[in-house]
Recover the amino acids of this structure.
């Protein structure tokens, strides 16, 4: 008589609850996204209260987003992108590879690398410096687009020398 028993399925492992790590701490990817929100908000000179009113949420919710304590839905992330005048990819830029690898999905799949792993540079800490924020705020105050473009080209060329 043939064996009709079904093969054992591998047990599904639930790595996290609501995006948190097994130790209960926020997911590092959510923390990175929150840091990018804080960076852009500060670069624009906006308070958490101002941003919360623009989004129709409490400033406490903005605080939780910025700390990575609360995950951000796709539609809310889109709202941030529209308000900030950036592409949604802005929130994932400069994500250190060790942070990208801490996503629960990264652990739970054996899929081949997507190629996006090389897009992270790990230079986010430099962006948080007061000097970098001041430079960004100053650059954003340039009203003449041609001058801003030329200055940008100059800085790019200077960085390659």
């Amino acid at each position: 008589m043939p064996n009709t028993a079904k093969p054992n399925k591998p047990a599904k492992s639930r790595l996290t609850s609501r995006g948190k790590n097994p130790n209960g701490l926020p997911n590092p990817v959510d923390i990175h996204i929150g840091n990018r929100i804080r960076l852009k908000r500060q670069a624009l000179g906006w308070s958490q209260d101002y941003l919360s009113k623009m989004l129709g949420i409490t400033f406490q919710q903005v605080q939780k987003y910025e700390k990575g304590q609360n995950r951000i839905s796709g539609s809310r992330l889109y709202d941030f992108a529209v308000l900030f005048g950036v592409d949604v990819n802005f929130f994932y830029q400069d994500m250190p590879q060790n942070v990208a690898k801490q996503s629960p999905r990264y652990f739970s799949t054996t899929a081949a690398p997507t190629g996006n792993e090389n897009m992270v540079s790990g230079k986010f800490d430099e962006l948080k410096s007061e000097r970098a924020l001041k430079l960004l705020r100053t650059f954003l105050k340039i009203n003449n687009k041609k001058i801003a473009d030329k200055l940008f080209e100059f800085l790019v060329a200077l960085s390659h020398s």
The chain is about 50% helix and 0% strand. Residues 9-16, 108-124 have pLDDT under 50 and may be disordered.
